[in-house]
Amino acid sequence: MLPPARTLEERKRDTLDRLTHDVDAWVATASPDGAPYLMPLSFLWDGTGLLMSTRSSNPTLVNLRARALAHVSLGPTRDVVLITGEAELLESISDELADSFAAKAGFDPRQAKASYPYFRIVPRTIQAWREVNEIAGRDLMRDSQWLA
User: Which of the chain's ends, N or C, has fewer CB atoms near its CB within 10 Å?
Assistant: First the structure.
């Protein structure tokens, strides 16, 4: 028997908790010719977007430079959060933000020998569900606006 479906407000609260406390996410991008690429990356939720960093030659960053669209997945399949968003490459970030990212991720891109630029994914849509009884109400955000 399935647990009762969560309300929209409960799903938003659970999603914000996951964004705040999870460390890693799966990031899907596509090359200009449509070849998919999936990469696990650490992130820091800043309240409006996910701050990430990867090697500048990584296909994720190469793909985002060509087309700034990404899909991000958090959690297991029976408690999933799916985010579609626009990526912005960041020229620089504050030391405070970089320190927060390093503390959460356990990795400081500033210390890497290779170039590890930061980028930020700003959600356009967010969906969350646990079981089939939550699929109908899975939309939490549309057009970058929370529905609850």
Answer: N
Q: What is the pLDDT along the chain (148 residues), one digit of tens a residue?
A: 889 999 999 999 999 999 999 999 999 999 999 999 999 999 999 999 999 999 999 999 999 999 999 999 999 999 999 999 999 999 999 999 999 999 999 999 999 999 999 999 999 999 999 999 999 999 999 999 999 9
DSSP 57: T
Structure tokens at 123: 């959600």
Phi-psi region of 16 (alpha: psi -120 to 50; beta: other; left: phi over 0): alpha
Give residue for tokens 């990430």. 52
Measured from the Cβ of residue 37, the count of other Cβ atoms closer than 10 Å reads: 14
d(CA 90, CA 53): 10
DSSP 90: E
Beta bridge partners of 145: 142
Domains of the chain and CATH, by start:
8-141 (2.30.110.10)
Pairing label, strands 24-30, 50-53: unpaired
